[in-house]
């Protein structure tokens, strides 16, 4: 990086701009003086960076610490309920409770299965759409791009409501058509519900992921294609051997974001729940945690469950990034 | 150049696949726009993609008249939550991203790694403990409880840093300093302008994220009049089993809210592509 030269130039410029001991330097004097001794007053850097990091600390870091803290306590009520319940430190007891609860463990297993369904569908369909639109044979590109991307603007709640209407026989033209030609059409049974939810998520985000990939495809130098064409490669071979390897980084990016999205599945099952018995109130880890907090009023257990969800998404996404980064150049 | 071989078999295949995909993506939207013109009886009694007796005006009248104009309030709330928090988030991201790209300072990479980790934190994981903290300080159930957590966009800082690094030459800043411009003046007069494509993208991302957010208002709010439109529609939908009249309200409301954001997005389409390139392509 150009770090060293940058330090010198901006430091010198800063010294010129802000006179030493400037009037506005009163708070944080100690830190201020120390850094000035080294490379001049840096108050403007703090002014640029601090507002974001104050908000980040309040609304990102503090809630995470608070959830961790709460997760180590348990509300103890005496056997007969005659005295006020007391809050006691209980170590990892909430984590043990969560991880030995069949409902919560079942919900974790369910989202992992869901991720195994949804991630390949999402990546393959976004990539297929991007390659089709990028192909030399495509026409009416603007129309297709807008229509694929349009569902991204439909809120998850509304998308789930819409597909919900398309999944029930009373209102669905799809079911009318499928049953007329004699095809199976149970979208809400225990065997199909995960696919029906995967469909809603794909519908919403495939077009957005496609745009990310198209941006990557457009950055490929044209000479690569020309060289391949001179060698007699077909469009399909160019797509497979030139285009896909060149968009490896954006593919990894959308894979990670899809993984994180699938692990925090919440809205779709919540909205579809009234339509089917295949979804219970512990269907996904987030639903289970929400149910613990607001249904059972057990915020300590809910905090432990939220922490487990966060740890799993970190482990999965960092683990995935490690694996793919080891194989070749870094994606990020 | 492309049209040299008109409608070769390969072209037909590509166009057929693209058309099939377009039908898939447009079908639910077409369904809801058609359903929004139907009476309650027709909604259940007629084929989904045909409206025999359109009565859109009457449905819209009922939608905006229901419960003292509650739906209009929800739309307004959504615009307020999304617009105000996206504006603040963009400003905070621009400042932090610009400073991280252009001023070396101690702890910079540590902070940036924190930001990257923040991108990966699931939003739903934050909502629950944020609710607990807000209930300690009496903020739950207020306008602020939805607005404040939404002003933070780690992804925005990431985009802003990349854009500032790529688009603002150090020579430009040096020239401005030699002309006597202060650091704040340089930021607001030069950096913000050069970064504007990325800033528009950050604004749109955050706007759509907040507009579509459901979990945060769900845990924070109890007063219907403060609901954003997502929470309101979900609430109406949950009442359809008690009173089927809510079906029609939910469907018409879903059509209006889907159309609103889709129209906004389509009109801003050219801004999207510039920003996406900044965010996804390796330098």
Automatic annotation (TrEMBL), chain A:
Main location: membrane
GO biological process terms on file: transmembrane transport
Region feature (Disordered): 1-37
Biased composition range(s): Basic residues: 26-37
Transmembrane segments: 43-69, 111-133, 142-167, 187-206, 247-267, 306-324
Subcellular location: Cell membrane
A Gene Ontology cellular-component term: plasma membrane
Origin superkingdom: Bacteria
Residue stretches making up the ABC transmembrane type-1 domain: 108-320
Entry annotated with the keyword Transferase: no
Family to which the UniProt record says this protein belongs: Belongs to the binding-protein-dependent transport system permease family.
Protein name as annotated: Multiple sugar transport system permease protein
Organism: Thermocatellispora tengchongensis
Automatic annotation (TrEMBL), chain B:
Pfam family membership, one: BPD_transp_1
Stored InterPro entries: MetI-like (IPR000515), MetI-like_sf (IPR035906)
Gene Ontology CC terms: plasma membrane
GO biological-process terms attached to the record: transmembrane transport
Transmembrane segments: 12-34, 79-98, 110-134, 140-160, 190-211, 245-266
Sequence similarity: Belongs to the binding-protein-dependent transport system permease family.
Protein name (Swiss-Prot/TrEMBL): Multiple sugar transport system permease protein
Species assigned in the record: Thermocatellispora tengchongensis
């Amino acid at each position: 990086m150009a770090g060293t030269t940058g330090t010198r130039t901006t430091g010198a410029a800063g010294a010129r701009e802000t006179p030493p001991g400037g009037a506005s330097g009163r708070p944080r004097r100690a830190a201020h003086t120390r850094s000035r001794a080294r490379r001049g007053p840096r108050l403007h850097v703090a002014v640029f960076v601090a507002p974001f990091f104050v908000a980040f600390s309040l609304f990102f870091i503090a809630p995470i610490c608070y959830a961790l803290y709460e997760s180590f306590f348990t509300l103890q009520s005496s056997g007969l309920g005659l005295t006020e319940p007391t809050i006691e430190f209980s170590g990892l007891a909430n984590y043990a409770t969560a991880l030995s609860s069949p409902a919560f463990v079942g919900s974790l297993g369910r989202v992992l299965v869901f991720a195994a369904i949804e991630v390949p569908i999402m990546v393959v369909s976004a990539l297929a759409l991007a390659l089709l639109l990028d192909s030399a044979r495509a026409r009416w590109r603007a129309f297709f791009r807008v229509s694929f991307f349009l569902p991204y603007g439909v809120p998850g709640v509304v998308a789930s409501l819409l597909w919900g209407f398309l999944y029930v026989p009373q209102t669905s033209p799809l079911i009318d058509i499928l049953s007329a030609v004699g095809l199976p059409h149970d979208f809400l049974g225990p065997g199909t519900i995960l696919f029906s939810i995967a469909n809603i998520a794909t519908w919403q985000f495939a077009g957005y992921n496609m745009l990310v990939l198209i941006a990557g495809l457009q950055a490929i130098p044209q000479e690569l294609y020309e060289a391949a064409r001179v060698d007699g490669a077909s469009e399909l071979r160019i797509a497979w051997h030139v285009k896909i390897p060149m968009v490896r980084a954006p593919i990894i990016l959308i894979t990670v974001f899809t993984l994180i999205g699938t692990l925090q599945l919440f809205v779709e099952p919540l909205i579809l729940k009234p339509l089917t018995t295949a979804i219970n109130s512990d269907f996904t880890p987030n639903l289970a945690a929400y149910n613990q907090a607001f249904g059972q009023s057990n915020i300590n257990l809910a905090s432990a469950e939220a922490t487990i969800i966060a740890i799993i998404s970190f482990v999965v996404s960092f683990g995935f990034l490690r694996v793919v980064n080891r194989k070749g150049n870094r994606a990020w | 150049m492309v049209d040299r071989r008109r409608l070769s078999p390969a072209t037909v295949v590509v166009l057929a696949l693209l058309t099939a995909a377009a039908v898939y993506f447009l079908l639910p939207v077409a369904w809801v726009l058609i359903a929004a013109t139907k009476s309650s009886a027709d909604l259940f009694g007629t084929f989904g993609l045909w409206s025999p007796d359109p009565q859109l005006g009457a449905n819209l009248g009922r939608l905006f008249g229901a419960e003292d104009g509650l739906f209009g309030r929800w739309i307004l709330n959504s615009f307020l939550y999304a617009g105000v928090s996206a504006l603040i988030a963009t400003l905070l991201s621009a400042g932090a991203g610009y400073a991280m790209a252009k001023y070396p300072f101690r702890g910079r990479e540590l902070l940036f790694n924190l930001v990257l980790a923040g991108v990966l934190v699931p939003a739903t994981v934050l909502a629950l403990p944020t609710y607990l903290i807000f209930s300690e300080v009496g903020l739950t159930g207020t306008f602020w409880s939805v607005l404040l957590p939404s002003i933070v966009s780690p992804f925005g800082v990431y985009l802003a840093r990349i854009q500032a690094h790529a688009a603002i030459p150090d020579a430009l800043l040096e020239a401005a300093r030699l002309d006597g411009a202060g650091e704040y003046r340089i930021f607001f007069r030069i950096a913000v302008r050069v970064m504007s494509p990325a800033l528009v993208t950050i604004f749109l991302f955050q706007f759509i994220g907040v507009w579509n957010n459901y979990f945060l208002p769900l845990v924070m709010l109890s007063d219907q009049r403060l609901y954003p439109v997502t929470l309101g529609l979900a609430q109406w939908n949950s009442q359809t089993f008690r009173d089927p009249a809510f079906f029609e309200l939910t469907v018409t409301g879903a059509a209006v809210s889907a159309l609103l954001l889709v129209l906004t997005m389509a009109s801003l389409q050219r801004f999207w592509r510039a920003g996406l390139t900044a965010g996804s392509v390796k330098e």
